[in-house]
Amino acid sequence: MTASLGRLLVDADDPAAVRGFWETALGPDACARLLEVVPQERPKVVKNRVHLDVYVRDVDVLLAMGARVLDAYPPLRATLADVEGNEFCAFVDPNLEGDVPARAFAVCTDSERPADIAQWWAPRVGARIGPGPDGTPRYLSECAGWPELVWKFVPVPDARVTPNRWRWSVQGGTFDGPVDPDGNEFVQRG
Q1: What is the DSSP letter of 5?
Q2: C-alpha 72: how far from its chain's center?
Q3: Which residue range is the domain that position 97 belongs to?
């Protein structure tokens, strides 16, 4: 049975502030479909292993909302942090349509073995595996529940040291527990 991916659960010290940032950035409807901000279980101590990629017309709009620049790759991309330091990548698209500053297009998950984890998740969420920029098969598209998002498994050499502050939810499917082979926690619903 195929599982359907649901909202990302986001741990926050100040849930109202984090929710407010993302509602303004993505729009209330898109934010409600994609994110569920919850009181934090533990403080943020390291880089998040799960984050969003968004398209933006102008990075400065997000900075005016309280984001800050972590790394800049002008003129087309920047790594930003939201009001509580949650990392995300902003890709400039001057032709972005709509009346909100940003549109989410991908969920990124850091992994020491991204192709293996993409292979593990693909049949469970009915996804198609495609290549990342390096040619390895580690991008999932057409995921049940996330048809408009690409799920990117990103190669990183650093080992997991704490549970994810951002994690996804799943409905349905058969799992041995709420952790995938890479140690990523997820929340089973329904």
Answers
A1: E
A2: 19
A3: 4-189
Tally of domains within the chain: 1
Take residue 36 and report the two structure tokens written for it.
Answer: 């569920």
R_g (Cα) of the chain, nearest Å: 16
**pLDDT tens-place values along the chain, 190 residues long:** 699 999 999 999 999 999 999 999 999 999 999 999 999 988 888 899 999 999 999 999 999 999 999 999 988 999 999 999 999 999 999 999 999 999 999 999 999 999 999 999 999 999 999 999 999 999 999 999 999 999 999 999 877 778 889 999 999 998 988 999 999 999 999 7
What is the Cα–Cα distance from 146 to 106, expressed in whole angstroms? 9
SS3 118: helix
- CATH code for the domain of 131: 3.10.180.10
* Beta strand spans in 94-175 (E): 102-111, 128-131, 137-141, 150-155, 166-171
Q: 């102008």: which residue's tokens?
A: 58
What is the spatial distance between Cα 11 and Cα 1, in angstroms, rounded to a whole number? 29
Q: Which residues pair with 125 in a beta bridge?
A: none
**Closest to 52 (Cα-Cα) out of 74, 72, 30:** 30
